[in-house]
Design a protein that fits this description.
The protein is mainly alpha-helical. It contains 1 helix and no strands.
Length: 107
Amino acid sequence: MTNSSQHSQSNKTSVTKDAAERLQRALTSLSLSLDPLVKRVSELEQNAADSQHFETDRARLASDLDAAKAREDAYKAREHDVAQLADETAKELESVIAQVLHALEAK
């Protein structure tokens, strides 16, 4: 190898080495620049997941509330029926007591 070709080869190696170092610095800089963005995307994904959990909980709670209201309405209807039956029973008892008292007075 001649001196000129050795110098040319050395120059190419130096240029390649410099280019590789610049590329490495650029990649490191890019990585550092992307880190906050990647972190923010991760946070947004977590917020979206949390939001979905809240929506699921809200839907379940709304369903539970609807079921509780339906049970309350059923209890109120039964309460009305029981109150009406209690009134009818009290009237019948009053009638029976009156008949018994009348029968006792007749003796």
